[in-house]
Amino acid sequence: MQYPFDQLIAAVPNFPKEGILFRDITPLLASPEAMNACIQALKTKALELKPTHVIGIESRGFIFGVPLAQELGLPFLPARKPGKLPREVHTVSYQLEYGSDSLSLHRDDLPTDSRALIVDDLLATGGTAAACAELIQRAGSEVAGCLVVIELLALQGSSRLGEIPVHSLLQY
User: Fold this and answer.
1) CATH code for the domain in which residue 63 is found
2) Which helix (H) or strand (E) segment is 122 a member of?
3) Quick one: which of 33, 43, 47, 31 has its CA closest to 67?
4) Which residue in 60, 107, 115, 138 is the catalytic one?
5) Looking at the domain assignment, is residue 3 inside a domain?
6) Of 18, 33, 88, 97, catalytic
7) How far apart are CA 93 and CA 83, in angstroms?
8) Considering just the CA atoms, what is the radius of gyration of the chain in Å?
9) Is 145 part of a structural domain of the chain?
10) How far is 133 from 161, CA to CA, in rounded Å?
11) Bond before 51 cis per omega within 30 degrees
12) I want to staple 24 with a disulfide (CB 3.0 to 4.6 A). Which of 10, 53, 82, 169 is the partner?
């Protein structure tokens, strides 16, 4: 049976600004049963992609990436915002709808020739996921795929990832 995750995603109109329909994962996070089912569903997809590492995008990618990495028996690595990692880093800057941002990954955390799996809660325009993919490639590694709980299809974020496999549990 497919778990009804969509029943645990709250639609919040006009947040964070007028005209935006925000997809709130808080009810999903509040249900231990649903979270377990979510991690198991992500694990099923992850096993098909044969990763050697799981990389969670700050910050909600950590929520799903850490338990997924534990389930898979793989290392978890955080892709962090600027100034959050203490050692030497790879950094990629990218454009957002309303500005720019950066992601960093410790240079010595991801071994060359590994297969890293990107995990996040939501794929919208794809800019953050594409920046994370670039970080992985700069480290000399391959992007195994991208797993998200929610994908906003109208924003075509998966197209920013090119040939990288993208799997989502829910699509709006």
Assistant:
1) 3.40.50.2020
2) strand 115-123
3) 43
4) 60
5) no
6) 97
7) 13
8) 15
9) yes
10) 8
11) no
12) 10
CB burial string 75-97: b at 16+ within 10 A, e below = bbbbbbeeeebeeebbbbebeee
Could you tell me which residues come within 8 angstroms of residue 42 by beta carbon, excluding any fewer than 6 positions away?
Answer: 64, 68, 119, 147, 149, 169
Residue 68 · residue 43 · CB < 8 Å = yes
Q: Is residue 43 domain-resident?
A: no
Domain that holds residue 155: 50-171
Which two tokens mark 167?
């799997």
Assess whether 134 carries a catalytic annotation. Answer: no
Structure-token match 């009804």, residue found: 4
- Domain count for the chain: 1
48 is catalytic: no
**How confident is the prediction along the chain (172 residues), in pLDDT tens digits per residue?**
578 999 999 999 999 999 999 999 999 999 999 999 999 999 999 999 999 999 999 999 999 999 999 999 999 999 999 999 999 999 999 987 778 999 999 999 999 989 999 999 999 999 999 999 999 999 999 999 999 999 999 999 999 999 999 999 999 9
Cis peptide bond N-terminal to 59, omega within 30: yes
pTM above 0.90, yes or no: yes
The DSSP output letter for 87 is S
